[in-house]
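Please produce the structure of this protein holding flavin-adenine dinucleotide.
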Amino acid sequence: MAKQLHAVIAGAGIGGLAAAIQLARAGLRVTLLERAPLIDDAGAGIQLAPNASGVLREMGLLDRIMKFASTPEALRIRRARDDKELARLTLGPISEFRWGAPSLVIHRADLQRVLMETCAGERAISLRTGLRVTGFAVASGGVEIGALQGAEITRIDADFLIGADGLKSLVRERLGLGMADAPVWSGRTAYRALVRAADAPPSALRLETSLWLGAKAHLVHYPLRHGEFVNVVAIAEDRRPAEDAEDLWSIASEPAEISPVFANWAPDARDLVAAAREWRRWPLFDRNPAARWRIDRVALLGDAAHPMLPFFAQGAAQAIEDAAALGRAFTAQAGNIQAGDINAALGAYEAERARRAGAVVIASRKQGAIYHMRGLLAAARDIVMQRQSANQMMNRLDWLYNFTPAKT
Ligand SMILES: Cc1cc2nc3c(=O)[nH]c(=O)nc-3n(C[C@H](O)[C@H](O)[C@H](O)COP(=O)(O)OP(=O)(O)OC[C@H]3O[C@@H](n4cnc5c(N)ncnc54)[C@H](O)[C@@H]3O)c2cc1C
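Below is the modeled complex.
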């Protein structure tokens, strides 16, 4: 009988957790190593586009996710200075009809909890928190992984290693893939806040995703946790030098830092920003897509492989797609895997994912330039948006949302 393969995954973010579930279901034993002592309620809302919710449905998780998620009825795009509606795309059931899965919004912690509970229910997965991967060596027949728990070094042997350790991935750096394309400070900062529904202006409570476009800044908001909160994300250009905190979610920001950006915006946008008491700041880094995601028995996944600016709200979605592709690559070997097949499976994973995720990185970058236009360029953009039919808008999203692996 073939021995059960053992995979180690560095990082238990959305990508690492989803990958652990997919590999366990492909018949592997999985050890997930997470440097944080516990996985907490960090973060705020995220949008789960149909290409992600479709994968989560295939994983059998959508019903549980729907207990926490909401389905916005529309995406509404407005001009920041005068509240002029530039475009409105009906979503709701249309998302299911057009792209085969719902467009959702959810608190990141709720999604993470569903993934963690699923991992806990899989006997083949062991999640070890408070362990920081510090290095690895590919040896004959496997990978030796070194991890630090407090002051103690632990060695873990695996058949292969997946680096799902985020933007500043140590695994990527040690593979030598990160040398030429280190993360670059984008000169933009995302500010995030949760506003209690009772404090928010009534217009922000509509079950839709609102996008406001201003000069050098934009604002996105949507109701979260079934209307208990409004999730607010403001992205603005920022002349400060890059910050370098390990846990980027934890940088607190004063309201006085944000409100000047919106001083000349329409009252509904201004009032929502003014209603937010606690802001968190997330400096945005950009990084070219890695040409290679894998060397030998070590491969990258999620932000470690393809961090992207959040203008298409696709980073977590692409990590979820990666996890599904990784699971498929090993399922294809149907429990009969030999040493050489690990390379074949990781190679198939890389081949399936690198081009698509790289395209999303580039598209997200371009979308950022469009959102933050000023002057004549912004005026031209607004005319194009107003003339666009709903069908034209959906056509432009098909490549992103209508994801099935057979088509890539
Ligand atoms: C402002 C903003 C808004 C966004 N909105 C959306 C959205 O609406 N929709 C969407 O799909 N995406 C969105 N994203 C992107 C999304 O948040 C990320 O792409 C996604 O969370 C990446 O998941 P990951 O698991 O690859 O990495 P991470 O979430 O970064 O997880 C990496 C994990 O690895 C751990 N780790 C790191 N180093 C080590 C080590 N050496 N040893 C052990 N553990 C380690 C970390 O502690 C962390 O838990 C947004 C991003 C930003 C900045």
